[in-house]
Amino acid sequence: MRSIWEDPLTTQRDESGRFQVTNLNVYYGRVHALQDVSFSMGREPLGMIGRNGMGKTTLVKAIAGFLPARSGSIEFEGHDIVGRQPHQITRAGIGYVPQGRRVFPSLTVHEHLTMVGAKKTARWNVAAIYDLFPRLADRKKNGGGELSGGEQQMLAIGRALLSNPRLLVMDEPSEGLAPAIVDHLAEVLRSVVKEGQSVLLIEQNLRFATELCDRILVMVNGRVAADLTAQEIASNPDVQNKYLGVV
Amino acid sequence: MDQFLLIALNGLTLAAVYFLVASGLTLIFGLMRVISMAHGMSYLLGGYIGYEIVRQTGNWILGALGAAIAVGLLGLFIHQVLIRRFQDDDMRVALVTLGISLIGTDLMLAVFGGTATQVPIPKDFQIGLDLPVIGQYPLIRLLILAVAIVVGVGLTLFINKTRFGSIVRAGVDDSQMTSATGVNVRLVFGLIFLLGSALAAFAGVVGGTLFPLLPGQDGSYLLFSLVVVIVGGMGSVPGAAIGAVLVGLVSQFALVYAPTYSLVLTFALMVIVLAVRPQGILGRAS
Hints:
The complex is a heterodimer of chains A (247) and B (286). With 247 residues, chain A is α/β, with parallel strands linked by helices. Chain A is built from ten helices and ten strands. Chain A has a six-stranded mixed beta sheet with strand order 6-7-8-3-9-10, sandwiched between helices. A four-stranded antiparallel beta sheet of chain A has the order 2-1-4-5, with helices on one face. Chain A is globular and about 45 Å long. Chain A starts with 18 loop residues before the first strand and ends with a helix. Chain B has a two-stranded antiparallel ribbon. The longest helix of chain B is centred in the first third of the chain and has 30 residues, at 2-31. Chain B has a domain at 17-215. Chain B is globular, with a radius of gyration of 19 Å. Chain B is mainly alpha-helical and 286 residues long. Chain B is built from eleven helices and two strands.
């Protein structure tokens, strides 16, 4: 019998530190690409924007285990994942949608989805991905290289969802896609987020980021420069110019 | 006419042995792009281990399985301990495996000696089969041809139709991203190396049954299987089958009609194929 003085099982627990990056330093070759990056998030979707070369992709690669961290920690659900292999990080519950999609040219759409080995009883199984992206079901037998950019992005998202991640990290999913496709992706991802899927979204497309996330971090020169609400940033052209403008 | 058919059949059964050796190399070198110079050593070591087991137990199948398992495990060990850390440095991998091969073949020379040995087969199989036109033909050669076909079909299905096969192909395309889907790519590549080495050892027992086992064969079989893999197209199992048939037929016909040029013609085949199709017969242009 649980005492009423104990913490409740899930609902009201403070989850603001569920995913926590602390003083993370990462070098890209000799470049000090991430400098004492710290932020934390709970279950709410979190966006991160910034111009090219500000360290966004470096951060994601460090989270996915592709790049080693010089110092600092990345904690997910209480475990430090720094220094772990990419497959261990995925198994720890972090799904990864890379920049540029990185689908496999030698595999068909269907093989991409089955190779992950999701259980039939899991929320995200192969059939659920085809429901989410019916376009992929039409192209089941096509090779990864024969898909359009939008289809490749759907496939990359589906592939990441199939590991049934408790945090989905996406690196510029709207990059290089036609506006209509970006809108469609935003709509689908919103439905996924509404279901309770936790998301960390790296973007340059501000509209796409604010459609999914209420909270947006801004990255400048390898540091987290601002922590804003979507409203603060969307309604303020000065802020947009400062952090995203070309000049 | 019957001589022509006999040579063709000889070429095909020789091709069966070449294919078995090359099928392992097409996994290791063609698919995983690990330049393993120790593949010929795996062949010879497999042959000798098979010979020992068959000599002591009299069971050919046990010898073939034992050789495949032992050399496969040795391959896994070599991959995990020596090759994995240099995976992206082709020259080092080539030199490390060449070193392993030199040490291994010298050790075999010390243990098994320099005289030719042959894996014995049960009396029941030492018979000829009456074929139309050709006449008597050794049953064992036809059986080995059948075994090679079964291995080839099985391997093709394994790579193209199973989940593990998808993972292997994904790992070859982009190993980092494959890892990010939750797959332990190092382990998968280790298992493929195991399978490739085991196939070479199995081929060694098969080859050692048809032909004598001799020191130095490691080099010639490595060379022939490289030619087969390159002619057929890197990483393609059906390509390796076609490559093996071509190399087998060319070398057998050349042996009869132009014996002096047998080796030259085999390599001329490779030159011609690469001049016309640089990616090999069934290879994909990259």
